[in-house]
Sequence to fold (212 residues):
Amino acid sequence: MGHLARDGYFGELYYARSRSVRRNGIPAWNLGFIKKGGGAFRDMGVHALDAVWWVLGTPKPVHVVGTAGAKFGPYGRGYGWGRKCTEEIFQQFEADDYAGGFITFENGVGLQIESFWASHQPSEFQMELFGTEAGAKFKPLMAYRCDDDKEEDIKLKPTERMQSWDRIADHFISCILDGTDCEAPLRHGLIVQKMMEGLLRSAEIGCPVTFE
Fold:
């Protein structure tokens, strides 16, 4: 989707949504996740944020408003991965088990993002793009167009090369040996970290956070 966006397939991207949802997915196998400083967004949401931000062309974030809380973990509910939850475990729960927010970027693009460790919803990882020439969904990998009275649903078929881990390895090696510009430089990781922490800070203080 990122390469299609860079080729102008979607026209101007002006809005996006990203969701990472588990039905029973609080990781009791790693107590570090459920302590203060962990949580659903730092575990799952950050990966969704990283992916959709890259597809959008890594625009500069301006401000974020967020919400977060814990409705399952502190009560011994929603632990379904790898280890049965005991009272000894869930009494240590200090993190969020859901978080979401809205990020506005300097170019006017809006991003809605959500992350749930546990919920009364089906598990999914979804990304949606809204552009002036086309829109798209990640699962199933589809593009959508509407021209006058004609609607098109287009099944996207990434090439074997695009899906391959070999491409990632080749790019990494090329960056080291040939000096190729990295598609995921360190500064991108720092900006994603800033957006994540800003969203969670906004949830904590109850008002938007503006980025420098």
In short: The longest strand covers residues 13-21. The chain has a mean pLDDT of 89.
